[in-house]
């Protein structure tokens, strides 16, 4: 069947913008922190746990911010939210290049993160993708999160080279410029949902003039509308809390490894440049997984896929530990790859689950209210790992706990069930 080029065309623009926005958000947030940790700690003469606390507190405040902006994503769309985030992120990163005290570092982390990349990061972007795609949602979310994979593949290596060659202050300046130049035009092309442009999700025809091959999409739209829950309805379900807790544990493990991977590798005897390559290999694993997760989401229960992703990342962490014990570079890279492969499923699988359980109409508000749970865990995890290193001088036991956390999260996700259709919902 020949699709309407206009209707599919703009959906692909939204998807392309999602890739770029998530690349920048992940680069400026999760991927950059591990690169800056050691040089900033040494020059500012602070503790590892203090650096981790600054990053984590900024993320925690971001969790509060998304509770507020969640409904705004549903009501006004992503464009203005992303532009505000771009401004604050660029200014915060520029300020980080100039600061020299712990308290300035903390304050500017809050500006660049909580008020910055949070506003053009995965929550805003994936809520928008969820509205634009239903029948092809698994593929759209997987492809949209390619930006996260590219950040893991490109940013650690290039940014480490820039920081090691020209200093961490220059590194922050590079990030500030990248945010302003890339995200601003992306924000301008984003729209809340296809209906605002007279379109339907997935490029479908108008339902009153549906073509035979579009019936699958029409059925998907109808099913999604019947599954629509408001924020207040969603939080009354057991599944809301189970998914929030499961992915909260995932966030604790994920953020801990991202922040401490380079310091961990150097602490067990590997070169810093090799550790940065390891994070790049993590990105390669992340990127190579997208086709598999996208294909599987169209065919396999997302809860089982979540368990597979979590377990794969846990196996990767265990391999990193083993590699440090026997000083095996190939095993270290294999660990990073498997960790990244599982990491690659985090965004598409979680966003698919949320939309499958509660529909797309109020997904921004629902994701916003669930986000603080993930933030609490992602805040505590890196701080605890950093504190453990400060006390013991080793990351090994902390990384063992991280692997266990992944396995526990997998079990919790699989205890959740799809809530019954909301027959009283209003599309």
List the helices and strands and how they pair.
Blueprint: H1 5-44, H2 48-76, H3 79-96, H4 102-113, H5 122-132, H6 137-144, H7 146-166, H8 168-189, H9 215-226, H10 231-234, H11 238-267, H12 272-297, H13 302-326, H14 329-343, H15 346-358, H16 363-392, H17 396-414
Structural overview:
With 427 residues, the chain is mostly helical. The protein has a single domain (5-196, 213-414), classed as MFS general substrate transporter like domains (Growth Hormone, Chain: A, Up-down Bundle). Helix content is 78%, strand content 0%. The longest helix has 40 residues, at 5-44. The chain is globular.
How would you summarize what this structure contains?
The chain has 427 residues and is mostly helical. The chain has helices spanning 5-44, 48-76, 79-96, 102-113, 122-132, 137-144, 146-166, 168-189, 215-226, 231-234, 238-267, 272-297, 302-326, 329-343, 346-358, 363-392, 396-414.
Task: State the main characteristics.
427 residues, mainly alpha, Growth Hormone, Chain: A, 0% strand, globular
